[in-house]
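debug: dumping io for the single-chain case to check the tokenizer round-trip. Nothing else runs in this session.
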Amino acid sequence: MKLVVTLMLVCLCDFALADTLTILNWEDYLSEKTISTWEKRSGHQVAQVYFDNDEDRDNVLVTHKEQVIDIAIIDEVASNIFGQKGSLLPISSYTNAPNISSVDSSLQQICGKNSVPYLWGTFGIAYRKDKIPVPPSSWNFLLQPNDNVKGHIGLMDDFTDTLAPALMQMNKSINTELRSDLKQAFDMIKAILPDVLTFEYGITFVNADKRRNELYAALAYSGDQFSLNEKMGKDVWAFTTVQEGTIFWVDCLAVMADSPRKDIALDFINYLYSSQVAAENSEAVRVATPIDAAKALQSQEFRDDEAIYPPVHILSKSQQYEVLSPGNILLRNRITSSLIKLHES
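debug: decoded output
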């Protein structure tokens, strides 16, 4: 579900058994209990290949013949693109996974005909509660930072999300095709480069960088705060959306069309989408479920957490990802690469 990124690939040499299901996934995005219970029930094993940005994920999907991938967690844009290429098994073929019928129909429309909604959330700012007592309320918190935040900001290496705060602050579409909009967003972010600590995805940075305690605020997805707290070993991170708007995102689950273990993959999906398992897995990874019956089984505290299940007034100001033109993607990649190079110079 982005920067000077290290793609964390689980070595598959020890998982070459025919009954091992390999999942391309974000780190900490599938609960250990969910995996272990299915492994005991099915007699199969699960191996995961981790990524921490969309570009590296897509590169794995393009070149995955070198690595066996059975199931991939992708966004709605990738579902559209890879589905059109025939790389994904159409959900009309998920006849052995009847539990997917319980998924919210509006979210299913977002993922399309080649994947199923897995989890959903919003885009905002993760912040250190012990360093920033008042939750950020505007993207200007990052774009026009106060002195106590300067040097402690985390951005992302992503051709959409890196520019999104500036575009939303300008009341522009995050999917804009206008060069003038992108140039203005570039200039806004360039101006704060001296105040940026890292372009590495917050979870990756906190997990591995010795400067982890210097990160006070970072671009993040709802749910990231829990992984950040786990890696820090203390409850210091929180997440908030801001007044100018957010991104409403849906992570989709897809079976690769060339998977040699489609039946095993569909068995896992049917298990994962049963109401009780979906409820437990969602609450364990601290991200919203797309299944109403599963949400009803979750704790009241979890359901009432507006960082997980945001109220209507937040969602009403949200944007969604769209498929961008090749030229737009190329320009955005040049912009983000330039920002990172300038930051590192």
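debug: round-trip ok. Confidence is low (pLDDT under 50) at residues 1-16.
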